[in-house]
Write a structure and sequence with these properties.
- The protein has 403 residues and is α+β, with helices and mostly antiparallel strands.
- It has two domains: 35-288, Beta-lactamase; 300-402, Sandwich (Peptidoglycan synthesis regulatory factor (PBP3), Domain 2).
- Helix content is 33%, strand content 27%.
- The protein has ten helices and 19 strands.
- Strands 16-18-19-14-13-17 form a six-stranded mixed sheet, with no helix packed on it. Strands 2-1-11-10-9 form a five-stranded antiparallel sheet, with helices on both faces. Strands 3-4 form a two-stranded antiparallel ribbon.
Length: 403
């Protein structure tokens, strides 16, 4: 009987903990974001990369044609968009949505990028991949290498177009957090960000194959650009495994927001992604504002053991002034919600020993939001302090007794 009673109390306690944790989690979700359709969603500060809101943001899911933002930026960074790509039988066999290339047909890579990003053509993606990477597999390796460089460790690329696929290393997939980070790189960090934005902001584009025997016209399917002011880029996606997906970037009053949505409904719910994106961006614009870290820490006077004072008196304590090296400051802005505060922590080296060089790092001023380190500036000395020697003692004694 006692054992049963103890088990009952243990179960009751566990249930109460679960309920309290669930209630706490629910309370943390803003009211306007409680009914998002997407299974996985992220609102990111495009300046710092901080996730402002996440829903299942680390869950690995297929991402459909949002894949193509990586295909596009890698191609732009290769510097080969002025080259000619030839359609292979593999490219010509790609399913809809496709440009309809024919085996052996030639296109300028630059034109294919508009086909890729505006109409989301799958055959254009394969043509680009085979031209830049030598093969789809070779280009996928480049995509995965780039993802790793960006810290997107939960992302695995198999195809350049986002069609559902699996290889020996895993399934074509990402997380909302990784997808947002990739878009952040494309629009604000990559040396080719301006070219990326130019392509993804183009409303319509016409081109021909190299022979000029066929002409094509592309229309931008990122309808969200006309739904919310400030949208600067975006890419839609859909496969039967991924559902509707979307990633976009918005600029507003000096703020950059990134939204990533995965598994945001299946047919006939193609408009859910627009509603979710509007809800997340509206929440971000209403609640988050830019703050720049200004290093206002005062200079510190530090004792230098064994150092020679400025007046050359070996009996006098040697000191040196240390100041924050504001030249090392990035000036990066962070989006903060009302009530959030950035705190600073200064660490200074104790027991400085001569000699000390001018500009020597003797400490750091660190800035934190919660437990996350945002910025660090070095504290450096403003002057040199030599080590006092026997000669300094003799010199001081000579002056003292000859005056």
């Amino acid at each position: 009987m006692k054992k049963k009673w103890r088990r009952f109390l243990a179960c009751l306690s566990a249930l109460l903990v679960m309920m309290s944790g669930s209630a706490a989690a629910t309370e943390e979700v803003p009211e306007e974001l409680k009914n998002l359709y997407a299974h996985s969603a992220v609102l990111m500060d495009g300046g710092s990369g901080r996730i402002l809101f996440g829903k299942n943001e680390e869950e690995v899911l297929p991402m459909a044609s949002t894949t193509k933002i990586m295909t596009c930026i890698l191609t732009l960074e290769s510097g080969r968009q002025g080259e000619i790509a030839v359609a292979s039988a593999n490219a010509a066999a790609q399913p809809k949505v496709h440009l309809g290339v024919r085996t052996g047909e030639e296109f300028y890579v630059e034109d294919l990028l508009y086909s890729l990003m505006l109409e989301s053509h799958n055959d254009s993606a394969v043509m680009i991949a085979e031209h830049i990477g030598g093969s789809v597999e070779g280009f996928a390796a480049m995509m995965n290498e780039k993802a790793a460089q960006l810290g997107c460790v939960s992302t695995h690329f198999v195809t350049p177009n986002g069609l559902d696929a699996t290889d020996g290393s895993g399934t074509h997939s990402t997380t909302a957090a990784d997808l947002a980070e990739i878009m952040r790189y494309c629009v604000s960090i990559s040396p080719q960000r301006e070219a990326f934005l130019q392509i993804t902001q183009t409303r319509s584009y016409s081109f021909s194959n190299v022979e000029q025997s066929r002409s094509f016209s592309c229309q931008n399917h990122n309808a969200f650009m006309d739904m919310m002011e400030g949208v600067i880029s975006g890419k839609t996606g859909f496969t039967s495994a991924a559902g509707y997906c979307y990633v976009c970037a918005l600029e507003d009053d000096g703020r950059l927001f990134i939204v990533a949505l995965l598994a945001c409904g299946w047919p006939d719910n193609r408009t859910w992604k627009w509603r979710d994106a509007a809800a997340l961006l509206g929440y971000g614009k209403e609640n988050y504002h830019n703050q720049t870290i200004n290093c206002t820490e005062k200079p510190r006077t530090l004792t230098v053991e064994g150092g020679l004072s400025g007046d050359k008196n070996p009996w006098r304590e040697a000191v040196v002034e240390a100041v924050p090296d504001t030249a090392a400051a990035s000036g990066k802005q962070y989006l903060l919600r009302d009530g959030e505060q950035i705190r600073s922590r200064l660490t200074i080296r104790k027991g400085l020993q001569a000699p000390v060089e001018k500009g020597e790092v003797v400490g750091r001023i660190s800035y934190y939001l919660d437990d996350n380190l945002l910025e660090e500036y070095p504290f450096v000395t403003t002057a040199s302090v030599p080590e006092k020697s026997f000669t300094d003692w003799l010199s001081w004694l000579w002056k003292a007794y000859t005056m």
